Amino acid sequence: MNLPFFVYGTLRPGEVNHDRFLRGRTAHEEAGRLRGAVLYEGPGYPYAVETPDGEVRGELVTALPEAYAELLARLDRLEEYVPGDPRNLYDRVARPVVRETGGATVRAWVYVAAPAVAARLRARGTRVEGGDWRGMR
Predict the structure, then answer these.
(1) 137 residues of the chain, pLDDT tens digit each
(2) Could you tell me the CATH number of the domain that includes residue 120?
(3) d(CA 135, CA 55)
(4) What is the pairing mode between strands 5-7 and 105-113?
(5) CA 136, CA 116: separation in Å to the nearest integer?
(6) Domain for residue 136, yes or no?
(7) What is the total count of domains within the chain?
(8) Residues of 67-86 as b/e, b for ≥16 C-beta within 10 angstroms?
(9) Distance between CA atoms of 127 and 71, rounded to whole angstroms?
(10) Quick one: the chain helix, strand, coil %, rounded to 5?
């Protein structure tokens, strides 16, 4: 299923990985919010950790149809995500994301902290207040 991507860290416009991975591969980018998650600081990038409350701000990115498969593979490599691998730092999951303009909800791929990483962050991580990684930098 060709879902859009919700990005909240180094893939956002103006950040280090946006041009490397997304430039020329997207049809549309718009502000969005992921409810049911909070952000934690990572080593130069954030982690979204799922929780009953909280909200993460980022961008909803729609890939060009002809670039979708390549982009999905490149983002999985960037996030070191391999389906079913217990060593993953992130899991790619489909979650509802609210469009900033208009408030419509769409399903999107989101890279969230894998269970072991999420447990460590909840226990001793530094939470990003306000759910916007740009706001802390």
Answers:
(1) 799 999 999 999 999 999 999 999 999 999 999 999 999 999 989 999 999 999 999 999 999 999 999 999 999 999 999 999 999 999 999 999 999 999 999 999 999 999 999 999 999 999 999 999 986 65
(2) 3.10.490.10
(3) 14
(4) parallel
(5) 24
(6) no
(7) 1
(8) ebeebbeebbebbebeeeee
(9) 29
(10) 25, 40, 30
Token representation of residue 4: 């859009």
Give which of 76, 106, 78, 81 is closest to 94, Cα–Cα: 106
Domain extent for 16: 5-129
DSSP per-residue string spanning 65-132: GGGHHHHHHHHHHHTT--TT-TT-SEEEEEEEEEETTT--EEEEEEEEE-HHHHHHHHHH--EEGGG-
Inside any domain, residue 58 = yes
Is 65 contained in some domain?
yes
CB-side neighbour CA atoms (13 Å) of 94: 7
